[in-house]
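Workshop exercise sheet. Pairs work together: one partner reads the sequence aloud, the other fills in the structure field after running the prediction. Swap roles for the next sheet.
Pair: D.N. / O.F.
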Amino acid sequence: MSAEPAAPARRTHTWRRHRWNLLVGAGLLLAVVVVAFSQSSTRSGVPLDPENADPDGARAVARVLADEGVEVLIARGAEALEQHPVDEGTVVLVTSSAQLGPSTIDRLLAHSTRGRLVVADPENAVTDALGVDAQSVQVAMTEPAAADCGPRAFADLELAGLEVHVDQARAFALPGCFGLPDGRLLAQAPPTADRGELTLLGAGALLSNEQVLRADNAAVALRLLGSGERLVWYLPDARDLAGQQGLDLRELLPPWLVPGLWLLGVAMLAVVLLRARRLGPLAVEPLPVVVKAVEATTSRGRLYRRAGDREHAAAALRAATAHRLAAALRLPAPAGADLAELVVAVSRHCDLAPGPVSALLTGPAPVTDEELVHLANDLAALEEEVRRR
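Structure field:
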C-alpha cells in the first residue's frame, strides 16, 4: 500500500531538481524567438534594397518594374556589378552611394559608360569623384516640388507636370527637374570624356516602400528607372569603400550582433549564478589511466563515424594494412604514401596484377559508408591472401 505514491513523489523530486534548467532553457528560447522576429523579415535590411520589404526598402518599385517588362538585376558589390553587361538599353541605379570609394567609382564609370547612370542621394565627396562640378545642399522639404523641367532636361522621361514630396533631399546646382531655391532634386550632369550620361537623384527616399505612393513619386521612379530594357540595381557594400575613407568597424557588423552578444552574456551570467553552487567538490582520479587498445580503437572508429570523416578512416585502414603486409613479407615499414615497393612485392607474392593492389592501397577515399565497408573487407581479404600463401 505504501508503494503507490512513490511515482508521484519521484516526479515531484525530478521537477524540483531540474526546474531551474527548464526555466533557463525556456527563457533562452523565448529570447531567441523575440530577437528573430524583431529583425527585418528581408534578406538584407539595407535602405533602398530591391529585396527589402521594410518601409525604407524598395521592393515595391523593383517588382513593378519587373512586371512592366524591365529586367531587374541586383548587383551587391563592385565585382557583382561587373558581371552584368551594360549597353545603350541599360540603366544603372546606385543606392547606398556613401559606400563608394574612389577606386570603386572609377570602376563604376568605366563599366557604365555606354548606359545611363543614376546615383541616388550622392554626397559631395561622391559627386566630386564622379567628376561633377557642383556642390549639393541638403534641404528639408515641407511642401511638394513641382516638376518645372526645362525644354531639354529629361525630355525622354516626360516629367512635365509631376510632383515629388520627400522629407529630406539634396539639391544640385545643375539643370534638371523639381526645382528648389537651392537647386534641383533631379539633375543631369553633362557627359565628359571619362563619363557617359549621369543623373543625380537627390530625393532617393521617393523609391522607398513608405513614400513611393506619395504624390507622384511612383510615376517619377518608374519613368526614371524604366526607360531602358534592363535595370542594374547596384548596392555597394563595405568592401567597395576604400580604406582611406575611414570605414568604421561597426559598419561591417550586422545590426543584431551587439544586442545578441548582450543577450548571450546575460544568459551565461544567469547560468553561472544558478549552477555555480551545484558543482560540488572535485573528483580525484588516479593517473595515469590505462586504456585498452581495443577500447581506443573502437572509440576512434565511433568518432570517425559520428563526424562522417571517411577519408581519415580509410587512410587509417590502409596505413594499418600496409604495415602488416610489410611485416608479413619481411619488408621495411613503408615511409609515408610511397607504397610502390610494397605493391610490387604483394603482387608477386599473390600472383596478382599491380593495378588492383595499388588502387586498393592508395586509391581515392570512399564517398559513402558502403564503399568504406567494402574497402575494409577488401583490405582484410588481401591480408588473408598474403598470409595464406
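Discussion prompt: The chain has a mean pLDDT of 79. What would you look at next?
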